[in-house]
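Support case: cytidine-5'-monophosphate complex. Customer-provided input:
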Amino acid sequence: MTEAWGPDDDEPRPHRGPVKVRVPAKINLHLAVGPLRPDGYHELNTVYHAISLFDELTARRGDTLTLTMEGEGTGELELDESNLIIRAARALAARGRVPAYARLHLRKSIPLAGGLAGGSADAAATLIACDLLWGLGLSREELAEVGAQLGSDIPFLLHGGTALGTGHGEAVSPILARPTTWHWVVAIADGGLSTPAVYRELDRLRATDRPAPPVPLGGPDQLMAAMRQRDPEILGAALGNDLQAAALSLRPQLADVLKAGHEAGAIAGIVSGSGPTCVFLAADAAHAQEVAAELTAAKVCRAAVTARGPQPGARVI
Ligand code: C5P
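Agent response - structure generated as follows:
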């Protein structure tokens, strides 16, 4: 068996630890959902965007694999073998042919089952942290291959920024645009929504006599053209999400959140991914603060926080 790290000084070596990794949440600026595939996934054409709502994962050396956590979702999130962090660590250890030994600790801010890919973010952070801790030296592409087997959004969260996602979301290509910072308000809901349930609801709506109206937008191409113009009004008009009708069907109260954001003066608002988080575009940082304050006062969501995008993907800090 080849050693995962060799005697050569240029070869990656195990890290003494701790290794701390910060990872952002994602929103989808545009999410076009195609038909259900035989493998149970839907074909996607999406524009991913990483925003400044972060989880932090710390990996320390250990003689077994353990996971502890603090923050958002503590006591709710299972920390056993079903947790995506543990599954990511085991998949990486198998790929690198090393024992899956680490003490992992998660500091969570991204809400559970919120449509912000928090679970995938944590798995992406685990891949980066354990790769360094175990001295595997895998490339980001190799880590993305391991991640794609576990969650559709993991390759994007390794990557970050703004990127086009195809396949079931796992095939990511960066969007080369002049860097522009966009200002968002994130309305966090009470309780989550199950992603598979939202996709099933979309299929059900599409199979009925009166299917949900398709998103009346030009798709990812129009979205990317809008981004290049660096004008929030133009970007706002191009935002769209095919899963929104399904999320609203399962959680009708989300209509109140979207309405409140509109009344608070947001440029545009959509459900994030499969929801129930809603995100609103603001003109600048001060405007985002105002919209967040009004949304909080409207009492339509658990919390309304400001965020900026794009952000880098999972990175050692
Ligand atoms: O890949 P991820 O774990 O995020 O997917 C969770 C579930 O969401 C899948 O098992 C599937 O039911 C649904 N999904 C889908 N099409 C996609 C992505 C997810 O139907 N492109």
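The pocket of cytidine-5'-monophosphate is lined by residues 40-42, 44, 151-153, 168-169, 195-196, 199 (CB under 6 Å).

Case will auto-close in a few days if no follow-up is received.
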